[in-house]
Amino acid sequence: MSAQAPAGQRLRRAPLPPLARYILIRLGISALLIFGVTVVTFLLTNLVPADPAQAILGDRAAGNPEIVERTRQELGLDKPLIVQYFTYLGNLLQGDLGVSNQTRQPVAQSIANVFPASIELGLGAILISVVLGLILGLVSALKRNTAVDHAIRAISLIGISAPTFWIATVAYFVFFFKLRAVPGAGRLDPWLQPPPKVTGLYTVDALAAGQWPVFVNALSHLVLPSIVLSLFTIGLLTRFSRSSVLDVVGLDYVTAARAKGLPPRTVIFGYIFRGALVPIITVVGLAFGSLLSGAVLTETVFAWNGLGQYAYRGATKLDLPVIMGVGLVIGIVYIGINFLVDLIYGFIDPRVRVR
Amino acid sequence: MRRRIGTFGLAAGTVAAVLATTACGGGSGGGGSSDTLVAESSFDLQTIDPARQFEFTGSTLDNAIYQTALKFEDGDLSKPGTGLCSFKMSSDQKTMTLTMADENAKFSDGTPVSADDIVFSYKRLQGIGGNPAFFLDGVDVKKVDDKTITLTSKDPNPALPYILPNASLGIVNSKVVKENGGTTDSKDKAQQFLDSNSQGSGAYKVESYNADSEVVLTANEHFGGQAPKFKRVVLRNVGGETQLSDVQSGQAQVAFDLNSDQVKNLDTGQVNVATQPSTRSPYVFNTASKDISAVTSNADFQNAVRYAIDYEKVQQLAGEGAQPLASLVPNEFIGHVPKDQAFKRDLEKAKDYLKKSGYKGEAITFNYASDQTVNGVNLSQLAETLQSQLKEAGIELKLAPAPSSTQLDAFRSGKQAMGIGSWGADFPDPTNYLVFTPGGTVAKRVKWEAGAAPEVEKLQKEALAAKEPSDRNTSYSKLYAALNKQGPFIPVVQPVSNVAINKSVTKYVSNADVSFDFAKAE
Amino acid sequence: MSAPRETRTTGPNPLHGSQPADGTADGAALPGNAPGAGADAVARGIPRWRLRVPTALRTPLGIVGGAIIAVWVLIALFAPILCPADPLAQAFPRLQPPGPGNLLGTDELGRDVLSRVLSAARTTLPVAVLVVLASMLAGSILGAVAGYFGKFVDEVIMRLADLVFAFPTIILAMVIAAALGPGLKNAVVAILLVSWPSYARVARSLVMSARSSEYVVAGRLLGFSAPRSLAVDIAPNVASPLLVLGTLSVGEAILTMAGLSFLSLGAVPPTPDWGAMVSEGVANFSAWWIALFPGLAILTVVMAFNFIGDSLRDALDPRTARTVGEQTS
């Protein structure tokens, strides 16, 4: 749905060429948003009415005021909030996200470890939802207001109505626990060693290293969680591609193509589909971003050691650097994808640039 | 509340269970390589630097990586004996002399373990001042010669032999640790180094370390003892339900965190269960301060709660093998109170006490950590059970769950009127439970200050003066029996700790000291 | 908002994220249409969509959705009569499978699962509606203010909205719930804080288009104050799309609430709660009935609201529908 549509009315004379100016403005806004994200995460995490130092101390140690004080110092909690924030920001500019309060592991490194897992799961899910979503959407649009359309609509609505954590549980129970049709939780069977790390995606790395059994195993682990996670995006993409196709169907060039007597298949794939593709690609990008950040519950059920689980553990253990690190990374991914989408629109639709 | 559980399973007289099964479990999903052991646990891992670690996962790993000066003979927690050293305690219980006893012991780089390593490791533990530093509070560590070390305490310290086998007192390679930022004061920087480059003389060393997902151990080729059958141990971080299916299907050989219901559902054709009484004691606490709650600080109200709890039902909830707890001290430790003296439900008495207390039916906020499980006892479930039981006596509880980090802080700040806590033994000695006597670390959290219960405090003095094991047993038992009849703490149940082991592991050792010994599994 | 589940997704806000750029653009999309349909309706003194709503629900999806909701509302109203047992009483043997004694089995504490599933409707439904109404109100007012006044006010409010969008809903809600402590009230606050931006965006773009329409301009020329202009001239014309968005969001609110309960950040026990029940069941697969039935309850309720919302959305004119649609799936 191209919100983007038409144009600004306020034409201003710009010293820069419009496209460059547009990119600069978008970059500026993105940077500002990222800054905002750091402020909000920082404030929020500090609102939690508990002392992170207590969360890592044993009972005996916590009974000793000296140890408590020293721990607070080590965590930097003894300084005023504003100083803490700027220290954080300063480190951040050097690419340092701090170390986890709990494990003393560098947050940036941990995120780098878990992020590929989320990407792999997200890619699996998005692949499934793109294929199914586009097909369903196209069919639905072409058979508009028929029983088929209604059925597809109902299915896609049901897909977005099921609680993921429940579907994940039910799917795990049925397909693994009862049927043994898929392997259990995790990314690999435990006795297999992960392939040498290149991208961090086990399937890709295993292929690159020529480890066929590892690839097959990683893929089989990926199937069920991907399907579960894709249920929601399938519904989304179905609806979206349906409306994009409907937008295009009525346009002059499609009518013209039909009038020329081109075969329906050519019209559908050569004209309608192609026309509807750009907005669909952008929504796929954004949906992917959300899958990366959003799989907390799915990852929990499937013991998928990704960003979501890392964030969840950080939140329950009150590990401020972890929560902030994850919030920031997700914010950056989200804002980055939006930025790209804006750019794509800027290139495609010149009217958008002028603002 | 949160304490290290684990290492110490039990106590007196428990015989190590060495089990050999001939049949190989059919469940092995195929492809498992025979020299790798996969174990699963829900991580609470902060570090495996022995001088800092204080959690179950860290202890489990350090037990396999580091050796200690003393160790429990055959896992019998009442018999601390020779480890790297033999020991002698002076008759005033103030000076312990350690003599190097294991000539074969070598660190993973081949260096033999020396007296300097032991002194450094102990001083480092004290100097860092982390969670386990209290183990050696007030102990002066001195090297006498290359074979001898003395540990001198100001006050009699009969608990020391029971403390030294703890995994936190594992001996590190002092030379290498010093080269990598290790010091004996709070400036020590060796934690990250030790997490991924262990420096121990145990059967294993760290191959890879990821505190969030898995730790891989590999055999220490310089290990002085018998080389382990499993050359590689993978400890993975997964939840209970996944552990259940993995250990059953043979994807994992060992599962550490099954709750009682899950254990019941295990297929005994595929899996053995090693059960040990838990060393963690869940309890209900009341505040002792009238300012915080006039209701729960009332002794009659506390007694009403004592009689209102249906201990038998709670035991059922905790699963097969759970026992009554007549004091906070587990039934296997010296100084425990015999379990037939445990409170039993008596609703009439509860109602009488309640009447005397002047309680008017107001709702009382009941705090607990909603995400915590104490050896299979889910605290949320326990809280809901207690709520409904106390209601039968006329006590209204308003449940106030919180994530454990938040609850921990709130409890320690001493402002809660009532709730659930739990204490895990740090070492199997009754002195570990003095934190519950007036003015003790935990007692202070419910504002039970010194002088609040003179009778208890008198018994405490007598217990501290006792030196002979049998005297200590009787006097501590008296003390804790008295503590149980009054005061703000009400022990609820002694849970069980279960380790599920796939039958593809044909031989294993599980005992009070080490719930599963990686090095001895075959 | 899309984010019913974990995926906050961008839902489809696809482009929303891009909002900063299209600030004016999406508003500008509408002017053409407002005078047409809108002015006509206003001329007759009737807000645009009112007459069409009943017809809108006469679609197969709408009818099914309405029927399911009706059933659940009845269940919520009469739960005390319908429940075979006290939902809080630990009166039965633990973990009994579904059978004649307990139709849907018993849970880990020996409570009747059927009774708990039924009574949970009594808290879930009203709270979900309430939280949606509250965030609709808050979001609409903020969005309307942004759209009407534009400039600085607009920038501040909409950038705040972007910020919220840049967080994964469930993590944000988790942190908020952790900060405030678990409990239904705090879960509501958390959901409120993460869900207002959708309404703000829709309200803003609708108000921007309405603002330039003739009847509003006329009012302003007559000297109407800004609040009056917003409340009297603009509000009736933007209310319907917002209500549609609201209907579509009830399901999502229920899902987010269930997600928080699943992570034990929702309703405080022993209050029966669907999400919390599923969470209990997850820890015990062999007792599959504990998780299955409350999950089905969530599924049916959310599905019904989505069916109705979707049918209502179809009744909106296409452009408005799109604005709404971007905020939902």
Describe the structure.
Chain C: This is ABC transporter permease subunit. Chain C: It is found in: Cell membrane. The complex is a heterotrimer of chains A (about 350), B (about 525) and C (about 325). Chain A is mainly alpha-helical and about 350 residues long. Chain A has helices at about 20-45, 50-55, 60, 65-75, 80-95, 105-140, 145-160, 165-180, 200-210, 210-250, 250-260, 265-295, 295-300, 305-315, 320-350, 350-355. Chain A folds into 2 domains: about 20-95, no CATH class; about 110-350, MetI-like (MetI-like fold, Orthogonal Bundle), CATH 1.10.3720.10. Chain A is globular and about 85 Å long. In chain B, strand 16 and strand 17 (about 375-380) form a beta hairpin. Chain B has helices spanning about 55-65, 115-130, 160-165, 175-180, 190-195, 240-250, 260-265, 300-310, 310-320, 345-355, 380-395, 405-410, 440-445, 455-465, 470-485, and strands at about 15-20, 35-40, 70, 80, 85-90, 95-100, 140-145, 150-155, 205-210, 215-220, 230-235, 255, 270-275, 280-285, 365-370, 375, 375-380, 395-400, 420-425, 490, 495-500, 505-510. Chain C has one domain (about 5-330): MetI-like (MetI-like fold, Orthogonal Bundle). Chains A and C meet through helix 1, helix 7, helix 8, helix 10 and helix 12 of A and helix 1, helix 6, helix 7, helix 10 and helix 11 of C.
